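Homework help board

Subject: predicted structure for assignment chain

Our instructor gave us this sequence and asked us to write out the predicted structure in token form, then describe one feature. I got the tokens but I'm not sure how to describe them. Can anyone check?
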Amino acid sequence: MAVATLVASAFTMLNPSHGALAATPVGGWRIAPNPSVSGSWYATTFGAGRFVVVGHGDVVESSTNAVTWRSYAAPAGQWQSVAYGAGKFVALSAVNTGLEEMTSSDGVHWVAQPGPSGEWTGITYGAGRFLAVSALGQLNTSTDGTHWVTTWTRSQFLLNSVTYGNGRFIAVDSADGDALISLNGFNWSFYTISTPGTPWFAISYGNGVFSAFSPSGLSATSMLGYVWVTHRASAPQQMNASAFGCNTFVATGESSGRVNDMIISHTGATWLSTPVPTDTVANWTGVTYGASEFVAVDTAGTIATHHVAGYCGPSVATPPRDVSGNIESGQVWTYQHPPTNQGGAPVDGYLVTITDGARTWTCHAPVYYQPNCIIKGLVNRALYRVTTQVHNRFGYSAPTDPEWVIPVPTWSLQAVTLSPTVSASQPTTIQVTGIIANSEGIYPQNPVTVHFGAQTFYCVASPFGECLINVPHPQLGRVAIWSSYTGYGIAYHSPTSYVMVVSK
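My token output:
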């Protein structure tokens, strides 16, 4: 593994006479004329009033207006990710041989740095630090873009993209199909986005949600990154990059022989294609937003820009803060929690969706703080997922992160298994229901204790006053199950139930 040599000399501009060439508008996107020294572009970013484009080679492109572009010399490398923060641009290499990092304070003069060793596929800046991810499962951080610390390495992951928003870093993986989450850049946890092994690419944050993409043509949204909702985004197509600006997500990718290579959305949930007048086999690899412009780049050396005219305009709201409610036999009552940002118009309603995976129920809710949406006809002790969208006159928001809910015949504290007999060779699920909220509908935040024979587990009640506990290795024999908690100064203790654990 080679370590790059520090290059101290500054690099001067190449072919300044070509900087006056302007992009040509076609179909909403403008294609910049090919510079005299073309590159194979892989990433772009905006910072300090300047767009920067990097790729495989010894040239970068830069523009202050996304209309006129100039070529500048740079250390030769396989530059495949770039970000701006802490007063500098930082680009990292996709291979761990040769030069591994270059930096610039102005986007024009670049110097090589030793950099972190790895196959870097994504970099972002947030909360006062750079965060980089690699195809080798590495996560590295730096506060100055020069001195790096490895916070975690897990070789099972092939990390493709990382972003920052809502107080957290989230990276996505195309090997196991996970989202990796950190609140500080050092401590990480990971959660499956949809089904294990589904690859995910190109994550970005905007309008209250994270948005990621699968080559199957799906997108996925989440407010916190722990639980995701999937949506149909396009025909099967790998999206390599995405960005958010002016109330709009834009994603770019491999064309699969089609003209419509860019897709756009205001919420991350509903997507439309926009034509870009280039070769139909173009491989778009990077996109960014700044100064009322989206800028996208491809591996053939093309730069495409899209201008957002004037004021960004009114928008849909961010998702509701969460969804909570009450349980009765065969039905769920939901409360709506207003969004952090109502968008460009007052909130005028909510849409609640409940599904068991095979069937879906919806309910339109008015605006007031009461159990204002009731869905009936559900099966007791069955597991359902609940999401809510907020509506204003510009449309529906993305959905909240799903919350699970279990209707029960009688709302009282219980801890039970669904079957009176279970196998010791399979995990056993305990349903804890009937956890009581206070008068404002808030459930206790102190843990609920669940006893399964000699084993003890803990959980925090869901927004519907329930817990699910998975016992990975249940002990053999007749096992007692019960739960307890203290809520708002009152101690609660469930009746004891029993389950027979057998060897097969």
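Reply (TA_rk): Your tokens look well-formed. For the description, you could write something like this. The mean pLDDT is 89. That's the kind of observation they're looking for.
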